């Protein structure tokens, strides 16, 4: 639980490196975070493809929240590398063993999906400080759209912070070894895609 950072807290206190936040917050803010953790959470993303960084966040979040929905965005306008169905299937195979975790696709506004699912938390991953400005802006916008929903940030394990779906796709496109960055089923799927493209 020491890697969680709440957007609602950031409006009241300085930005802390999330690994040490619980050493910094007073009892009032600590209780706010604990109360938020009792709610259903949504972890949205494109997951094109899902990486070990994503899996790390999902695995740890499953021990924090009573119910976690991994929400796979269709992103039709961005022409994703893998189909929506493939991304959902790969995630289901990768996290299906985790208690309280469901994988669901969505193609509407994120905040609307969160409210439809009766969730109170949007969970976002932060790999580096460079992610923070965009994520903070996004969290603020979602807060404006619905005050019923809070955004929490979770950082992946330190040895996974450099992994991104974009880099994985680029390595795979050049027939590089991606086995240390993604689950085995994703390795097989990307190899299959590369073979199909080379025909």
Please explain how this structure is put together.
- By secondary structure, the chain is an alpha/beta fold.
- The chain has helices at residues 7-10, 21-24, 27-36, 52-61, 84-95, 110-116, 129-145, 165-173, 184-198, and strands at 4-6, 41-45, 68-73, 101-106, 121-125, 150-154.
- It has one domain (4-159): HUPs (Rossmann fold).
- It has nine helices and six strands; from the N terminus they run E-H-H-H-E-H-E-H-E-H-E-H-E-H-H.
- It is globular, with a radius of gyration of 17 Å.
- The model is unreliable at 6-26 (pLDDT under 50).
Assign the structural class, choosing from mainly alpha, mainly beta, alpha/beta, alpha+beta, or little secondary structure. alpha/beta
Radius of gyration: 17 Å
Strand content: 15-25%
The first-to-last residue Cα distance is 47 Å
Global mean pLDDT? 84
Number of strands: 6
Assembly state (oligomeric): single chain
Q: How helix-rich are the residues, as a percent range?
A: 40-55%
Give the second-level CATH assignment, the architecture: 3-Layer(aba) Sandwich
User: Which stretches are low in confidence, meaning pLDDT under 50 for 5 or more residues running?
Assistant: 6-26
What spatial form do the alpha-carbon principal axes imply?
Answer: globular
Give the CATH level 1 class: Alpha Beta
What is the CATH topology descriptor? Answer: Rossmann fold
Strand order of the largest sheet: 1-6-5-2-3-4
* Domain module count: 1
- Describe the main β-sheet briefly: 6 strands, mixed
Helical segment count: 9
CATH homologous superfamily classification: HUPs
Order of helices and strands: EHHHEHEHEHEHEHH
């Amino acid at each position: 639980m020491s890697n969680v950072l709440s957007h609602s807290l950031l409006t009241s206190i300085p930005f802390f490196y999330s690994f040490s936040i619980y050493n910094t917050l007073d009892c009032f803010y600590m209780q706010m975070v604990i109360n938020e953790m009792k709610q259903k959470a949504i972890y949205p993303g494109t997951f094109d493809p899902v990486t070990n960084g994503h899996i790390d966040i999902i695995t740890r979040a499953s021990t924090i929240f009573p119910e976690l929905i991994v929400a796979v965005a269709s992103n039709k306008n961005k022409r994703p590398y893998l189909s929506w169905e493939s991304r959902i299937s790969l995630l289901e195979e990768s996290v299906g063993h985790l208690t309280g975790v469901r994988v669901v696709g969505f193609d509407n506004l994120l905040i609307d999906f969160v409210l439809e699912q009766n969730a109170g938390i949007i969970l976002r991953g932060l790999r580096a400080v460079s992610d923070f400005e965009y994520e903070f802006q996004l969290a603020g916008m979602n807060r404006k759209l619905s005050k019923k929903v809070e955004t929490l940030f979770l950082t992946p394990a330190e040895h996974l912070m450099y992994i991104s779906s974009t880099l994985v796709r680029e390595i795979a496109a050049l027939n590089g070894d991606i086995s240390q960055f993604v689950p085995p089923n994703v390795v097989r799927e990307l190899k299959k895609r590369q073979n199909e493209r080379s025909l």
